[in-house]
Design a protein that fits this description.
Layout: E1 4-7, E2 21-24, H1 25-50, H2 52-64, H3 82-116, H4 120-149, H5 161-178
Antiparallel strand pairs: 1-2
């Protein structure tokens, strides 16, 4: 049995016209949490586009490995070309932007599905794609490649592992919620 939330405007005399609008709680939670991740990714992409230089410096320092322990056994991995660093940064921004757009489209799908009681499967699939994009960016990109390959964990000033772990965890939890039985169901 799926739990439901009751919403609805009250008509004259306090009665709800046609009864209460019943929204399935799990799809509503999936929609809201997907919307939070979509908003976050949109703001991250927007910030990186409108304040390009701030995080470009972050990417440059991580790739150059100039604030790590500078172990000669690792320094061969460093990318010191500003052109290659900027290409990597632009690719990150593009990935963030596409992830945000996919997640926003998923939210529109969730809202339409909740209103019309159909289309929740599509919203679930779009959420899955967008959330996996976030997981790839922060898990593979920042935690694995940035953190381990470029030894970001060694830097006191350019270490983004905590933020990456938070973002990875948030997207992962939302992905699990989206795939719980009943998250794409509107059955009574």
């Amino acid at each position: 049995m799926t739990s439901r939330l009751r919403f609805g405007a009250r008509g004259a005399g306090g009665a709800r016209p046609g009864g209460a609008a019943r929204l399935p709680a799990l799809p509503l939670a999936a929609a809201l949490l997907t919307a939070i991740v979509a908003l976050y990714m949109a703001l991250v992409a927007f910030g990186n586009i409108t304040d390009f230089d701030t995080n470009r410096q972050f990417v440059r320092h991580v790739l150059a490995m100039d604030t790590t322990f500078k172990d000669p056994d690792l320094m061969w991995r460093a990318i010191t070309s500003h052109t290659l660093q900027d290409i990597a940064y632009v690719l990150i921004i593009a990935w963030e932007t596409v992830a945000a757009l996919v997640l926003v489209t998923a939210v529109v799908g969730w809202v339409a599905g909740l209103r019309g009681r159909t289309g929740l499967d599509r919203a679930r699939r779009l959420s899955t794609v967008g959330l996996l994009m976030v997981l790839v960016l922060f898990g593979a990109g920042f935690i694995a490649v940035g953190g381990e390959w470029f030894a970001m964990w060694q830097s006191k000033s350019w270490n983004g592992l905590d933020a990456a772990a938070r973002n990875f965890t948030m997207a992962g939890l939302v992905l699990v919620l989206v795939h719980l039985p009943g998250a794409n169901s509107s059955a009574e």
